Amino acid sequence: MAKLYYESDADASLIRGRKVAIVGYGSQGHAHALNLAESGVDVRVALRDGSSSRAKAEEAGLKVMQVPDAAAEADVVMLLLPDTEQAAVYERDIAPHLNDGDALMFAHGFNIRFGQIVPAPGIDVAMVAPKGPGHLVRRTYVEGGGVPSLVAVSQDASGKAHDLALSYAHGIGATRAGVLDTTFAEETETDLFGEQAVLCGGLTALAQAGFDTLVEAGYQPESAYFECLHELKLIVDLMYEQGISGMRFSISDTAEYGDLTRGPRVIDNHVRATMRQILEDIRSGAFADEWIAENRAGRPVFNELRRKGAEHPVEKVGAELRAMMPFVGAKQRLQDVSGG
User: Mind spelling out the 3-state secondary structure of 263-330?
Assistant: First the structure.
């Protein structure tokens, strides 16, 4: 069994004794900064000139600084910018200000795993990766709970990088839920695979294909939307709460029989072979090279695919139907209004 760490396993004084710079104030950034500050940690938020997030961070009572100034003042730097922006900001604004004994932290291992960021040998390099979006990291902390997280160490110059990462995890509330050891490679590769083959790529392609199949067969687009996309939440919630077996217990016998007999025909050996190739592309660095090159070229393929996805009929039908269901998205609208 993998080892899980909880509140009693972390020394909260370690991170409280450091000066922490949170670079970025997006989904994860705002949650980390606020949670750490409320845990008694000396936090400053590092933002570029003209950042639209500056006002939000200042209104929350946080100290806001330019990235180079924050990196120079802090001895722990948590880099929470998008993957594609991290390397340039690190080289220009952070690396020149890091000293031996400082710590560089990440919430995702992409740039370390694929060599886009190579810290100096005297720097601790660690990861604290909550397994949930930032708004959940923040909300559960406020409620007295936490989001399970992963910790990893890529470079242990001080001999105490793992202890510091656990202390940081404690500061954002993760040890309330449980923290699991991993490696930068394992976190990055499994995260990318999950996104591409199942959670995002696989799921959206499956929903669109199901919708298209029903519409092409002459069924109403509205009926196709309800059956192939709207009801996904019910099934995913059941699996989240009870696992696959618990979900199957909760659905009808007819649905369960269809699941057991037809599911393997959809996700067949051909699909499994494709998944293995997707994983190999991730592990070999082929996907990272492709994505880095795409960004350097101005994202032409990405932007075209995004445009086509937004124009798929399931989007138009879904928008019309969701407008008729005021309960859909109500939590998000309330969150936006409250600033949570």
Answer: HHHHCCHHHHHHHHHHHHHHHHCHHHHHHHHHHHCCCHHHHHHHHHHHCCHHHHHHHHHHHCCCCCCH
